[in-house]
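Here's what a typical entry looks like (Cell division protein FtsX):
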Amino acid sequence: MRAQFVLSEIGVGLRRNLTMTFAVIVSVALSLALFGGALLMREQVSTMKDFWYDKVNVSIFLCNKNDAETDEKCSKGAVTAQQKEEIEADLDDMNVVEKVHYESADQAYKHYREQYGDTPIAATITPDQMQESFRVKLKDPEKYQVVATAFAGRDGVQSVQDQRNILQNLFDLMNGMNVAALFVMGLMLVIALMLIVNTVRVSAFSRRRETGIMRLVGASSFYIQMPFIMEAAFAGLLGGGVACVLLLLGRYFLIDNGLALADKMQLVNFIGWEAVITKLPLVLAIGLLMPALAAFIALRKYLKV
């Protein structure tokens, strides 16, 4: 097979169907950019989980005088010194517990004032309304239920809270956005495949005389089909390249510059450049192989010579 002939036929096909080829490139680029974005979003959620779950605590809030009057869980009264000692001792004996920190009502009030001192409601809060608590660091954050089962409902304990629940809504939102991106990606992918099939069909129809002559002189089916397949693959590769550029620009403008989320949200551990770069070969491979396969299947139906 002469490479010069194949390349010339690819150029002819791209020029004849320039508008449809451009539509294919744009559709492939958008669908693969959404695909790569969904992969990065999933990795971002995983990175944030690893980062935050390693820092969250289980909080055991103890009953105070106000709770004894208003909360059925504290109907036996405020927590006593003996109960606090027993709770702390039991926590220290648990294998799943890495570290225990006691926070007094005064310390809790101080932290509250630091965070909400400028709000109107802060002026109505007094130290005796704050709860004492134990902040428990677990060796495995997934073992929260072990602590909850051991201390929920115990005398002197008002509630046991897992701080992961605060983050779970955020992770659920990000996962929902990930699913939405995959859905849109699938829709764009279907559109791209339809455009590829139509482009190949139009190209095959416009060159039916040339392909007929090639068949008469003994050219193989693979030799005849190769320019069409390469044409689709080239358009798909261009779309994949555009998608890679979009992913790199997205990482640059969203996190490093432009919105600069890395500076504005310093408590969030964002994915690095290596996470983006490792996805680019996959995006390019799909951009190359998907149109080529679609063209090969379409040619079996539309290229009858």
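The radius of gyration is 31 Å.

More examples are in the samples folder.
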